[in-house]
Amino acid sequence: MFKQTTLFNFLKYIKPIWYFNLEARSSSYFVDSNKLSAEQKKYLQYDTAYHSEVSRAYDLAYQSFHKGLITFTVEDTLSSLQREIPLEDEYYFIRKYFNATWSWYILVLRLIAFRNPFIELRAFLRHRKVKRLNVFSDSYQHEKVNLTEKPLVSVVLPTLNRYAHLKNILTDLQQQHYTNFEVIVVDQSDPFQPDFYKSFTFPISVIHQAQPGLWKARNRAVREAKGELIAFTEDDVRIKPDWLIEHLICLNTFNVDISAGVFFPQGSQPGPSQTFYHWADQFASGNALVKKDVFRKVGLFDLQFERMRMGDGEFGMRCYLHGIKSVSNPFAFCEDVKAPEGGLRQMGSWDAFRSKNWFAPRPVPSVLYMTRKYFGVELSILELLIKVPQSVIPYKFKRNKVYTLLGSFFAILVFPVVLIQVIQSWRAASRMLKVGHKIESL
Predict the structure, then answer these.
(1) Which of 332, 363, 370, 335 lies closest to 349, judged by CA?
(2) pTM over 0.90
């Protein structure tokens, strides 16, 4: 487990496996508001409701982070994230930025953990009437820096039994405004159809991989890539003609190593945090542009995740801990088609917490392998408490708030079954941790 550090301690109850709960080599993420320009400070609200000046500083840093106020100078960030914060301020922070249900959830957990009930209730009740604030209501808009060079980009595209969808994404790539790129397709389909690729006119290399394996496929493609920039996409997404250009502009604007593109379901609109540049708090290997040097520094994808989930999340965690900077890029977005067949869904799970049958581990063991490796037992359990109850509802209702709430109640009814699934997953993760990582060097 790595050293834990965060702004407000109560964030761990809501975001147990948030990258920024752990200390990275370079921690220039939370800005000291005193170092901001007058123009940047206009986006922040100084809050006198906090009891502590430290809490006010942390609140301003939290606002800055979520409004896209990015700094690359360690001297401009808060010098310490480990000072004690009054309990009243912890509850106030949660009420201010999150749904009120979370404060009740935290109170119950802390009472179960034998915290002093009188102190907890007094702190909880003091701010019970606080209204939630939308921290994304007014975000900072960075001015883009145009491209001065046109480096070769290698686009990595693994596929498994999705030729109909694959045709769409390859057509999107053929229509890119940026033309100095190659595509490396790792085709794991059965039956393999080599003639499928003959109609495309851009540089395309097809690797036939007989044994399906997503992380093996991506590692193979990264090794084969001729470019020093690696773009990742998937076989069931759609992208706009400026997708590559926008990724390159992001790297150029911020001089970072990773441009982390955003996803949203096809036919929907981006969420409030997907409309402006800000520090990326996750890495999704279905939409990103990465300097090849990153793989030389941290290694390739961990093959322990083969045929399972969160291999990209673990890679992103390694990048973060190594001080490699990643910016969330709303302009290089992709629409997620959510193909019902093929891909990892063919290998036995709808997502990280939903298997295709009630006798399989829940979550997928690789989830607990990753969380326990980096965040330890306590935060892993907190993650299970949040995600497992929601996961008992079918995948198609995943984003429905009503069904998500009902899922939590249903989880109580099927608790013995779910508990067995979680124990299975925990034991499998323990075996994986005993074996250790399978991270190859580039």
Answers:
(1) 363
(2) yes
